[in-house]
UniProtKB/TrEMBL annotation:
Name of the protein described by the UniProt record: Radical SAM protein
Entry-linked SUPFAM superfamilies: Radical SAM enzymes
GO molecular function, one term: metal ion binding
GO cellular component: cytoplasm
Pfam families found in the cross-reference section: Radical_SAM
Source organism: Alkalibaculum sporogenes
Keyword terms, alphabetized: 4Fe-4S, Cytoplasm, Iron, Iron-sulfur, Metal-binding, Methyltransferase, S-adenosyl-L-methionine, Transferase
Gene3D superfamilies, A to Z: Aldolase class I (3.20.20.70)
Amino acid sequence: MKNLQRHTPVDIWSAPYGFTYKEMVEVIGEREAKILYSSLYKHSPKKEHLNMSLKTVYKDGDTEKYVYELLDGMYIETVFIKRRGGGTVCVSTQVGCSVGCIFCESGRNGFVRNLTTAEIVQQVILLLRKVNRIIFMGMGEPLFNYDNFIKAIHILRDRNGMNFPTDGITVSTVGPVKQLKKLREEHLKIQLTISLHATTQVVRNRIIPNMHLSKISDVVDGALSYAKRHNRKVVFAYLILPGINDRPSDIRQIANWFRGKNVMLNLLEYNPTSNTQIKKPAKQEMAVFKQQLERAGIEVTMRSSHGRNINAACGQLASKYNETNE
């Protein structure tokens, strides 16, 4: 593995969650690596191995929002949704975000920095809960922190450690085309969700202004290519904005793209943020749009929202602690 010569035993013992099992074996030997990996992933975390700490927890029914403090004084948020027999964790990959979706709080103050691999992995470890699904859809765009994101997946799924099943991992992305092509070639059959939200370039530029360099047709083609390459159903997330992306022409384009393909369209309802100009669709509007898509031959579902009361729902993650530190 590249850059192994730069790792030392001190590095590994001081920040072990950022290292793969293979890296550890190369530096400290197989016997020590087995002991350390077992300690990290099969027992409660030890304070000396951590480089982030839990600041506070907010709870709302089946949803919990964890605020973590990083060594540089920055904060990130992670969401845990309790399910039968375990739960789903929504993991952040960046402090802030550069994408600038108009319905999302994470990028309101811009991008600060990428999370390290260790900071990504520890969000799961520090929950001290049984996790049966990991979704990279917290703060930040995962594919803009590509190397650390991919390495974190390899660490989480390593059979010497947590041994998390690959098909229980989902990445939610706006689909930067270059990185989407790289993801297609990875030997990782993770689940893919594309935040689409439009059927034309003009409308998508309005909703996701900082993704204008990625053509919407290329994003769709890249996702469909991933579905074919890995034999995985790709989910396209679609936030309904009345009068903007729910027109008859949108239904026709969605049908042209996805009819007969290994695709599901996931309709989203806007969760309140600081953008007061966005109109929330009525339940009836969402139901009609769903019915029209189904008549056009598209598999459609509507995502239920969790954690709105604690600002933990989709699009609401943005630690207020970072604002006070600026």
